[in-house]
Amino acid sequence: MIIQKLRTLIFPTLFIGFGFLIGQIQYTMPEETAYHEGTWIQWPHNQLYGPWYQDDVEPTFIAMTDALQSGENVHIIAYNNTELSHIMTVLTNADIPMTNIDFFVHPTDDVWVRDNGPMFVYDQEHNLTILDWGFNGWGGDTPYSNCDIIPQLVSTDIGVPLVDLNNMVLEGGAIEHDGNGTLMATRSSITHPSRNPDLTESQIEEYLTEYMGITHFIWLDGVYGSDITDMHIDGFVKFANSNTIVTMNESDLSYWYVSPTDIEILLNSINSSGEPYQFVYLPLTQNNVITSWGNNLGYKGSYCNYYVSNDVVLVPVYDDPNDDDALDIIQEIHPNRSVIGVDVRNLYEYGGMVHCVTQQQPIQFIPGDVNLDDNLDVIDIVVIVNLILNGSADNFYLTIGDLNHDDNIDVTDIVMLVNLIIGN
């Protein structure tokens, strides 16, 4: 009864201001900074690149798992049972607690779960749902048949319903969204014929509106063939929140092969309310990235490809003089989380960084359950009161405690919660 009352109160307000989009939006995707149930990782193995690969990149995955496990669940996909045993051994040897770590055994082609893994959204009843977009190995550049079906397998594993969207190819790293209706992406990695030859840009936007709640699109042209991803947006842009974009300065964007036209579009972006974004600029590495065994890759590294979890922010680092500057800037952006550098030098040789190998699973929450104990009770009222008095709240509190969806936690939300608890 309480849940039904919550739905009656909340969901009609979700679509106020969207006008003609009311009938089109069926699902919404929470921002990365919203509270997580856990993080998905596809563990590296030697099936694709050869017998040295796992040794090269596994320390990155051990470090990420260690950093994440204290604040949320870590869901690890192992290639087979032999690999599962290996993973459990290396984590145990690293003295990593296993309480919040679980394992799923499915063959994978590679580690890039951001691109091929499940994307989690909420339906209109606020039920967690997995979107299964098509995945074709970045336009057929690499083997992909195992990774393409991971969302289906995860859906079965965890009992979360799946929406089959294989008519459209979409990689998670190809999109950045601000949690407030705005999406930024490059055409080179989404609308290009290598991905969606039978869909127009307008049709692609209709998919993203209906299944992710996107109402405002910022398209950069990108550069097809600039790298294996064809210029994924998450390599050089990150939404810190609904009014702040993290990126590089103009010189570094040019180094990243972002065109002058795209730079102008990016730096003059407005959000879904028509307001200009604020910008925070991260450096590139000072030097070209050199792997742990001394291979000079011949190009610099980006810090924009970081991942925000419940308690920590995982930032790619490269044993470079600019590492500390980047960590300090990101700590200022996310003051309520601990910023942790993760060495990605070896992983970077294969085409990605931290954000590329992580995928968040939001919580299945009850709006109003501010302390996340699966109950609506007086404790939630106390927490909301404290948040109001303290004048601050994490994003997940704003999402869950903002019952009237006015982007504030105030006395109105307390009144609504009291009425829900007493059954009025």
Structural notes for this entry:
α13 runs antiparallel to α15. The strands form five sheets. The protein has a four-stranded mixed beta sheet, sandwiched between helices. It has a four-stranded mixed beta sheet with strand order 4-3-2-17. A three-stranded mixed beta sheet has the order 8-9-10, with helices on one face. The chain starts with a helix and ends with a helix. With 424 residues, the protein is of the alpha/beta class. The chain has helices at 2-10, 53-68, 81-93, 113-116, 137-140, 145-148, 150-158, 201-212, 250-255, 260-267, 323-333, 345-349, 378-390, 395-401, 411-422; strands at 27-28, 36-42, 73-78, 101-105, 119-123, 128-134, 162-169, 175-177, 182-186, 216-220, 238-241, 244-247, 278-281, 307-308, 312-317, 338-343, 359-362. The longest helix has 16 residues, at 53-68. Mean pLDDT is 90; it is low at 1-20. It is globular. The protein contains 15 helices and 17 strands. β14 (307-308) and β15 (312-317) form a beta hairpin.
